[in-house]
Amino acid sequence: MQFSDIHIHAICGVDDGAKNEEDMFAIVDAAYADGTRLMCVTPHFNPGMFGEHSRRTKENYEILRAYVSEKYPDMELMLGNELRYASGCRNWIYDGVCNTMGGTKYILLEFSFTETSEKIIRGVESMFNSGFIPIIAHVERYSKLSIAQIRELREKGALMQVDSMSLLRDFGFKEWMRSKKLLAERLADFVSSDAHDTGSRPPELSPCYEYVKKKFGERYANAVFYENAYELFGSQKEREV
Ligand SMILES: [Fe+2]
After folding, report:
1. How much distance in Å is there from the Cα of 134 to the middle of ligand 1?
2. What pLDDT, in 10s, does the model give residues 75-107?
3. Does domain 3-233 have CATH number 3.20.20.140?
């Protein structure tokens, strides 16, 4: 099975993911060995917590790109960010310091896990108004956002990303139940690793793929683990905004 992973903290030295080049390469090695063939690396873009590392992100991405093109020529690699929503954050994208998903109009957008549903909805709408399509990162982890509200946001065009570790119950019972509900109702568009290392938050997607295939069917598993991302970001598609 081939996988697409559109939420992964493999770029080193810019957030709480890979610490150094060795870590960065190890995460990608493990992902490739597990079957990942399309990867959008998404360091946190949250200047209040991690600082503003756009230059180092681009430099280390180039190092990773050279590594992948030599070692894994059949892997497609793209650069994005996991943007923590903040008032005026669209300017970070306009200014070119925060990256959309591989240069498309799609942006991986996260909020505080305790954020109110009203603020999440307003944030998503403001991204639409700024010309971007939000992919809501680990949507199952916002406890104040109801399943009905997620459905409404999706009907408006937002896309939903679920963490594989939520589906495997690694983030707790509530996240496990909510992630299962989202898949049962076909509200998830992508399941991604949100990997930070090769230990406690690893990039392997195959255990979760097997679980989802058994519980929700092979067709939907293939869509959320590979096809949806490939259709949006694969090389056969135009990437321009
Ligand atoms: Fe993340």
Report:
1. 14
2. 999 999 999 999 999 999 999 999 999 999 999
3. yes
Nearest-angstrom CA–CA distance, 97 and 167: 32
Distance 200 CA to ligand 1 centre (A): 14
Cα 153 from chain centroid? 17
In terms of Cβ atoms closer than 10 Å to its own Cβ (0-12, 13-18, 19+), residue 209 is buried
Distance from residue 152's CA to the centre of ligand 1 (Å): 23
Residue tagged 């970001």 (tokens)? 233
Which residues lie across from 84 on neighbouring strands? 110
Q: Distance, CA 201 to ligand 1 centroid (Å)?
A: 10
pLDDT band at 234 (very low <50, low <70, confident <90, very high): confident
Q: What is the pLDDT of residues 56-79, one digit of tens each?
A: 999 999 999 999 999 999 999 999
Cα 163 to ligand 1 centroid, rounded to whole Å: 9
Q: Using the mean position of ligand 1's atoms as its centre, give its distance from the Cα of residue 60 in Å.
A: 18
For the chain, the first-to-last Cα distance in angstroms comes to: 30
The rounded Å distance from CA 9 to ligand 1 centre is 7
User: Separation of 52 CA from ligand 1 center, angstroms?
Assistant: 16
Residue 151: how many CB atoms within 10 A of its CB? 15
CB 39 within 8 A of CB 47: no
Order of all β-strands in the sheet with 3-8: 3-8, 36-41, 76-79
**Ligand 1 centroid to 156 CA: how many Å?**
23
Q: Calculate the CA dihedral of residues 35, 39, 45, 51 and round it to 10 degrees.
A: 80
